[in-house]
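User
Class, as today's exercise, I want you to study this protein, comparing sequence with structure tokens, and judge whether sequence predicts the tokens.
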Amino acid sequence: MTHNKLFILLPDGVGLRNFAYTDFYAIGKEKGYAITYWNATPFSLHSLGFTEIHLQGKVHPKTDLLKRAKTAIELKSFEKQTSNPIYAAYRFASESKTWKQKIKNLLVRYYTIKYKNKRTILAVKMQQSERNTDYYKLCLATLKKERPTMVFCTSQRPVNAIAPLTAAKDLGIPTATFIFSWDNLPKATMVVETDYYFVWSEQMRNELLYYYPNIKDNQIVITGTPQFEMHFNKNLLQTRDAFCAENHLDVTKKYVCFSGDDITTSPLDQVYLEDIAKTIRELNTEQRQWGILFRRCPVDFSDRFNKVLADYKDEITVLSPKWERKGASWNTVLPTKEDNPLLLNTLAHSELILNVGSSMVFDGICHDTPCAYIRYNPKQEMIKKDIYTVYQYIHFKSMPKQAPVFWVDSPEQIKEIMLHVATEGPTVLPHAKNWFKTINHHPPQKASERIWEAIEKIIH
């Protein structure tokens, strides 16, 4: 192995924001590491001045079926283990229109029955399946040639990460994975097996030990996530005048940010946006000056907002995320580095953030911008998803008893909360900051440094 040569495995685009668009690379270089991004995304990192090796290859069809069975078994196991039916809400029905889809679903059901009491074996079975692929052989050849000291995977979820990590383990190269999101572990998204697991917090460490008792405490490293580091980069923060001028906003207005969710999590976001727009219009007739900054979910390309945007064009300004669509599926929609300052300044110059249960609450905290969670089912619409189900998800159990967000339980409360923030200030912020400390190791701007410190201890 080449001393101090680190492979950063990017199996999909979600790791770009944490490990390519932060100071993670610069910190590693300063410490003397030779860093290579093992890049399976369609986004070229050469433009950022990074060394990369493109990772291409096909996962064995059986591996994906085993992964689906593993997820189903684990969710059923978690439900039984906790006597909590909410885990069933994490299961999504697979399409069964074609014969090919039907056969795949039958095989998943077969594996689910066969391994229902042996779920830990499935990770081994997936590794064995991948060893039979040309993809694995290519990974093995790359690692033999490059001889890195360690392979660090940026997310535990993608099935295409199994082959490169298995190849590394077969060559005796230490491996680690970062747990990508605060809500991932209860959803049975642990697809890969590595030597070490980098987590956000003490709470996530406890979750990992609870859901995956085969993982030992000495394999877990608490570092926090680099996800929020950009908010502390003062070079990215614009003055209010500059931000308003760049985005054609009225500097005299107060703005609220409505951050959209994906269509599965919140299928009626367009109704909530309209309710907020109606409130804004009413307030503005009272000689108040408010507006909405609408940031849609980056992977939501539906037309569901078109009507409300047309009807309330004077109240709503669209600030679309600066992500690039590189393919047809959601996981080929990739963030760009330019989105960081857009998101940062949108939140910094908003009085309030409104959404349905989004982690954007923590981004807002970094700018002392409070968040309001919408928690009512629209009366005039057929309920496609009961919104109360969202707040029963396991990751919301981490909320402190004292409300860290404003709760919007009716359209009428939108106005009340906006006026409260305008007159009384962001009164929920102290509790929100306590929540942030629970879910992410502090200080949040030092996560990349802590990750490198942990890597150094593992390697040396």
The mean pLDDT is 95. The radius of gyration is 23 Å.
